[in-house]
Structures are given as structure tokens and as C-alpha cells.
Write a structure and sequence with these properties.
Number of strands: 0
Largest sheet: none
Shape: elongated
Order of helices and strands: HHHHHHHHHHHH
Length: 226
């Protein structure tokens, strides 16, 4: 719809947002970092030319995450650092752009297993969400934070985050509750409570992590083929 509305118009900020959205979907839905990086670079150029720093910095963050996904960690992190520096320094106005820059950095930190840095940024985003009453980003961030706590071995804190988050996730978007259930299932699996983990996975059916946890459960039970 946006593309049709913009047909025949001079390139402007709206085209920057549209190109940025294409890049985001290319990375997060199609898992194509090269195409995401191309779209992000184009959106960044539009944002820079039009003086739209929200577009420019969010695109820079997306470009950085795409680089990290391709294995160019130093090059990607340098872009993510710049984007998040602008976000936390008050240079950006759009709340989605601010939270997205931080979320891209958290995602990158998780991918390279920099748990300490990811945890610090999760705390920062939680503070930002509380300040601006951004319930959706807050709920999503808590799920990511629970991942980090599980990996760090702080299982009691991870469970507290997940259980506190299930209600808000259900209120905001019922389908998002699977984000919490699949992580709680993984926690139960690591605790050796395999039957409970299996039951929790029923509520996470369709989540992209659900088959992975099922595979780990099968392996725990000695079913290598499964």
C-alpha cells in the first residue's frame, strides 16, 4: 500500500521509511542479510540526504546487524555503536527508531554471545520503555533478557522475568505469548523437567524456536533420530 501511494513522487523521507521496512523484513523474515544490507544502505542515504536522522540512524543500525549476521562483526558493531549512541543521546525523536536501534544492538550481542553487553542494553531499553510506557517493546525486551539469563545460568531470575512477562504479552498480542512459553520450555528442559517442557511447547506451536527446543528434548530422551 505504501509503495503504491508513493508512486511517481520525488524521493523523500517516506521512501526512506519504506526502504527501511523492506530491509527489516528481508533480515527478520526472509533471513537474507545481504539484501537487508542493500536496503538499509539505500534508506540510510535517503535519510542523510533529507536530514531525517531517525531514518538514517535506524537504517545504520539495521545495516550493522546485517553485517554481524554475515560474520563481519567489527564492521557491524561499529555501525550499531553509532546508531545507539545517537539514540541514547537524544538525537532521535521517533520512539520506534530509538527502540529499534537498541534492539538491533541487543540482537547482535546475542548472536556473538556478548552476554554482558546484551544484558546492559536490555536494562537500558527496559528503562526507556518504562519512561515512555512502551509496553510492546518492554515485553519483547524481557523475553530477550530471559534468554541471556538462561545462557548465563541465572535460571531463577530468568523464570521470574518470563512469568512476569506472560500476562503483558497476552494482553498486548495473544500470539506473542509464545515468545515467553518457548523460552520457559527451554528453561524447564535445562532443569531436567522434560515432561513439563513438552507441555509448555504446546502453547508455543508455530514459534520459530519451538522445533529447536523439541529437537533438544528428543536428544535429551535419547531419540537422536527424532
Amino acid at each position: 500500500r505504501a509503495e503504491r501511494l508513493l508512486e511517481g513522487m520525488e524521493p523523500g523521507v517516506e521512501q526512506g521509511w519504506l526502504t527501511l521496512l523492506r530491509g527489516h523484513l528481508a533480515l527478520q523474515v526472509d533471513h537474507d542479510p545481504a539484501r537487508a544490507r542493500t536496503h538499509a544502505a539505500a534508506a540510510r542515504a535517503i535519510g542523510h540526504d533529507r536530514g531525517a536522522i531517525d531514518v538514517e540512524m535506524m537504517a545504520l543500525g539495521l545495516e550493522g546487524l546485517a553485517y554481524v549476521c554475515e560474520g563481519a562483526v567489527e564492521e557491524g558493531m561499529r555501525r550499531l555503536d553509532e546508531a545507539t549512541a545517537a539514540a541514547v543521546a537524544g538525537e532521535l525523536d521517533d520512539l520506534d527508531a530509538i527502540s529499534s536501534c537498541c534492539c538491533y544492538l541487543i540482537d547482535a550481542c546475542k548472536r556473538v554471545r556478548d552476554f554482558e553487553r546484551a544484558a546492559q542494553w536490555c536494562e537500558h531499553v527496559k528503562g526507556f520503555c518504562e519512561q515512555w510506557s512502551d509496553r510492546l517493546t518492554f515485553a519483547a525486551c524481557r523475553a530477550h533478557y530471559a534468554d541471556i539469563l538462561i545462557w548465563r545460568g541465572d535460571w531463577s531470575a530468568a523464570e521470574a522475568e518470563l512469568r512476569a512477562n506472560l500476562g503483558p504479552l497476552a494482553d498486548i498480542h495473544p500470539q506473542r505469548i509464545a515468545d515467553g512459553m518457548v523460552r520457559l520450555a527451554e528453561l524447564r528442559r535445562r532443569q531436567g523437567l522434560l515432561d513439563e517442557a513438552s507441555r509448555l511447547l504446546e502453547a508455543a506451536d508455530g514459534h520459530f524456536l519451538e522445533p529447536l527446543v523439541r529437537a533438544e528434548l528428543a536428544l535429551d530422551r535419547g531419540d537422536a533420530a527424532g
